[in-house]
# Entry
Amino acid sequence: MKLPGATILVSRGINVFEAAPAAYPYRSTKTHGDWGMTWVIGASTIFGYGVVLSDTCVSCKKTGKRWNVLQKAFPLGKFIVGGLAGDIGTGLTMLRSLQKFLSDDPPPHGECWEPEYVSETWSKEARRLYNDIATNEITGPVHLLTVGVSPRPEVLGGAVPVVTVFRSPDFFPETVVGGNRAVSIGSGAQVDKYREALEQLFQVEDLVYLQGEVGNPGGFGRVVANLITHESTLQPVDGISPYFHYCCVRLGRIEVLTPNGMPEVVTNWPDLLQKIGSEMAGGPLVA
# Structure
């Protein structure tokens, strides 16, 4: 089974590239080794698409101030979404590097990137770039998460989702391929009630949540998004926003959806600084 606009051909992206110049040159200059509270989720579904959910909270570690102002997950290439947790300036710069890797020599029309190849190849550049930033300025830890799809015409949906987590400073790819499974980064990943909610949503013994897909392609993913938003609203944890961007990654397209009531958010470092203005002066910003 193939979706419109996609074939089972896969681009291996063998081009050699140099890292993008620092897209966000104004970063914090103080050490911050612990995390701001955030929650970014990446998931594989048995229906051939992947899911990314990311909250919008930004924290100042020194003052404790927080703002619901930042989109933390973005489409980066055909068909891969990336999200971040940790040092915001460095994390955004590294996502920009991955976006540049995917766009400098993009796959031909009708083809897509092989997610496992991208993870293995770009992880070396991620390690080099992070070490270069850390050598020239003080930066905090960064965790990144990507979700892509690998064409498999014999399976439901014509693809197998691939979820990868990278953690500084080594950025060794931790990869989950296929199945109904979810992983997450940020402090939300350590919250027991949130972790239990994720496990319940993605278990396959009880079909109650999977039934959201019946007659409604993508329905299970939207059920997950709605229930995670509901969970974070009913059982709030300080510093984790109840507003989540939802990205659905399919073979052939990426959808980005926002819930009703989502506050106005920014997508890059300069706009983030402008949004919060002088309030940032109290210390470094983390997600």
Q: What stands out?
A: The two ends are 39 Å apart (CA to CA). The longest strand covers residues 142-151. Residues 115-136 form the longest helix (22 residues).
